[in-house]
Amino acid sequence: MKFIHTADWHLGKLVHGLYMTEDQAYMLEQFIQLVEEEKPDAVVIAGDLYDRSVPPTHAVNLLNDILFKLNVEMKVPVVAISGNHDSAERLSFGSSWYQHHQFYLQGKLEDSFKPVTVGDLNFFLVPYAEPATVKELLEDPSITNHDEAMKAIMGKLEAYINPDEPNIFVGHAFVIGGQTSDSERTLSVGGAECVSSHLFAPFTYTALGHLHNPHALSHPTVHYSGSLLKYSFSEATHKKSVSIVEIDEKGVATRTEKFLKPRRDMREVEGYLDELLDPSFYKKQETDDYLKVSLLDEGALHEPIQKLRHVYPNVLHLERKVDWMDAKKKQVYQTVQQNKMSEVELFEIFYQEMTTATFSDEKKKWLEEIVDEVKKKESVTL
Amino acid sequence: MKFIHTADWHLGKLVHGLYMTEDQAYMLEQFIQLVEEEKPDAVVIAGDLYDRSVPPTHAVNLLNDILFKLNVEMKVPVVAISGNHDSAERLSFGSSWYQHHQFYLQGKLEDSFKPVTVGDLNFFLVPYAEPATVKELLEDPSITNHDEAMKAIMGKLEAYINPDEPNIFVGHAFVIGGQTSDSERTLSVGGAECVSSHLFAPFTYTALGHLHNPHALSHPTVHYSGSLLKYSFSEATHKKSVSIVEIDEKGVATRTEKFLKPRRDMREVEGYLDELLDPSFYKKQETDDYLKVSLLDEGALHEPIQKLRHVYPNVLHLERKVDWMDAKKKQVYQTVQQNKMSEVELFEIFYQEMTTATFSDEKKKWLEEIVDEVKKKESVTL
Q1: Do A93 and B94 touch (CB under 8 A)?
Q2: Over the stretch B294-333, which tens digit does the pLDDT of each residue have?
Q3: Residue of B217, B220, B218, B183 lying closest to B204 (CA atoms)
Q4: How far is the alpha carbon of B187 from chain A, nearest alpha carbon, in Å?
Q5: How far is CA B333 from CA A240, B174, B301, B340, B349, in A?
Q6: Nearest C-alpha of chain B: how many angstroms from A174?
Q7: Cβ–Cβ of A89/B57 closer than 8 Å?
Q8: Which architecture, in CATH terms, is B2-258?
Q9: Are B271 and B319 in contact (CB under 8 A)?
């Protein structure tokens, strides 16, 4: 048996004011191709299909189209849950109709923890839920955090676990504690959000969503697939993938990562403006990528973002590495407040603020002459 | 063949700040019962299932539950389109899966105008669309208003009409022009919103949504079902119903109205406050109804809304029939601006503003004495 584990598509995501819908559609087309090649018995989407409870309509259309291709046209069973970004209610709409096509979409956490069976695999679907929701649903007042909530859910699931069959847990949570680390200690550090990976011991494989890094957790059977795309510059070093999971006859899961190529990568670039604008540099680059640029230049730069975007059209964020203005600012502003100044004095302050060069006596003399000349002309024309 | 025609459920509707969800659920349960009794071959919902493009989740849950009961549990085919209040895209999500259960939900107007067939009936589903949308979709630059748009759509539908079978049009539009009126003239009066009923001549029956009055149009084959409930006081005199439509062997449609009883009626009440608060009056009333109250009293009333709600808890709107303040206001305010006045003078103005009685010399004298007395006490204690 084989299934593909993916999560955190975040359709409708805005990154720095830009909708990622086209990039997502590009990735999902490759995903469809991968499914065609791999011919899995199921596709598992472990939450955060959308980026928000009310996604924009282009995201709604995209999800509808992709799921339709996968499930109706290609007849691949789909198993999905809602994440913390999805609206459980809105995502649930229609799920009763989907089941007929082996599209199992669990939006709301429900009292029934009976698994859905696809081929020989039992999928236990546990959508994201706040501890307070679990507390109310299971009528267990002792639940105060995510770990206790998950423990209580596990207590309900146990009755349905057949140890002779492959049992797959599908969840959306912040799970910590690998094989080597002291998970209890990490858990107490991690806080109320965290769930211990020990809880998933009864399962052949645990397909998680929530953390965007496919290597967020190092555990033999509990895995994050990672997000579909890099969704922030903090993810720039991630290598995004989807997981192909095969369960052999002995009930052992093997996970292989498959890398899809994004339409545009998301990267951080650091350097001097001239350097970045030099063809010998940028011709070796994918200049269409989504970039965060850190400039090392000191002093004033004229319209650096426009110049950069001429070469790198998708600069999303620009920052200056050297805080060159800060030291001088105070001194200058104090001066301004104390005296009423001449044109030349004002220019000197402006010069000092905008450049790192010295406003020499020579420059000063030259400016004084210009100011005098202009003033004379003014008195004539007025 | 028999089907039930309903429309304009407007789930998620707010009326005077109050969600109608419980009232809607109450009506829809009766609707389910009616379907159980009538055993129609299909249920037709002619648009505005929701009241807005992003309905509240309780409305989403209600629609999901009702459609699930009807279509999955009771196995009744459902034919539905989106109205101007629905989001075509959001409502469309999942519709490809629904078809397997004979739940035909047409959210977006599409290039294909092929009917869906349920039993012997051909349903032509035309969701609400702006003329500009139709213009673009059909690539017909001559379309400038709703009538032209519908005419163009009819041109596309024609190819699929089999005159030997019952053809049912399901639409959401402002259709005018009955059998007796000069519809062309009415149309020119009605403006760009209006569609002539003549256009629907090829159909055995036209099931419309949009106008909330089931008698908005008087035509032998073109009908509004009206809305599920009264949704504003302008609808207080409507008698809401759903339509049972039977098509006989000769292909002739007969429509019967079925009246469902709302949890609370929506009514207008007019009278004097004392009269409305008199048990001999209100004991004959359904005091729980949603009410617009018009008071005939002149003069000031102390907390009339609180008093009314004590008897009629669901007063949604209160207005005074007599504009008793208006005439005096001007005069009084002018006086206030002109002089600095004594306590007694100020009270006189207040008295005149709040009552219809005369501020007699006797009253004036009495007040002067009180003011003097208070002032004396003040000077002692200060």
Answers
A1: yes
A2: 999 988 888 999 999 999 999 999 998 876 555 555 555 5
A3: B220
A4: 34
A5: 73, 49, 21, 12, 9
A6: 26
A7: yes
A8: 4-Layer Sandwich (3.60)
A9: no
